[in-house]
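Table 4 source record.
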Amino acid sequence: MTPSPRPPHDTAPPEPTDGKAAPDRGYLLDNARAEAGERFTQLAELFDAVTLGHVRRLGIGPGARCWEVGAGSPGIPQALAAIVGPTGHVLATDLDPSWLTTGQGYEVRRHDVATDPAPEPGTFDLVHARLVLVHVPDRARALATMAAALRPGGRLLVEDADTALQPLACLDDSGPAQRRANRLRDAVRQLLAGRGADLAYGRTLPRALRAAGLVEVAAAGSFPVGGPACDRLEAATIRHVRGELLAAGLTDDAEIEAHLAALAAGELDLTLAPLISAWGRRPAES
């Protein structure tokens, strides 16, 4: 249902890395590498139906105004544009919007939810962020910014992983390939934590939304286990952070190549961290 992500027509895709890029202090899974496109595609396969199911249950329909925070790829903005129709409006923002395409039914802006004020405050029927806040240092400030963008009665939908809740790559830790996968998953978690990610953030979302002043707060979880999308997402992630894993001494080339070969052969039943989806409503002004 969701098309594969692609960069704007006037921007070439990032060049594939050789796995030896020097680590930096920014977001570990940044948009600047070609592997980001494959990650976007597989995350869409795994989670877009979950996200859009929540959007529809929240009553978002024709004529609604939506802000997609940290959009990354075009999938959710395009789907929201189809839901709200020509009388609605979708704004897609990202620190690096290079994979977003203007002229596809939504507006694109560069925006940092961690530091920038809310665009068009008090006007949106829906504000949504998926796999964004776990990486933001001041999460409370970012949530306050998103809540400020809502009109009275508008809905905030935030979805984030909780990798500490389920840290394994292979639940069935039955052999050397599975144990290797779990070692590498732990290594990636170490890198994320070193960049400031809160690996237990997902479970705190209901409390965080109430603290941001929202009411009618509820949450649900999604937990994919096995299948080609999980395998392809894992392979893209490992390739994306290969240089950082090697530079940190958390693995070696032989272990990475063996893991990628096991993925290509379909030998692993991989799982992901639970995605916690939480939502709430901005109260009507008294």
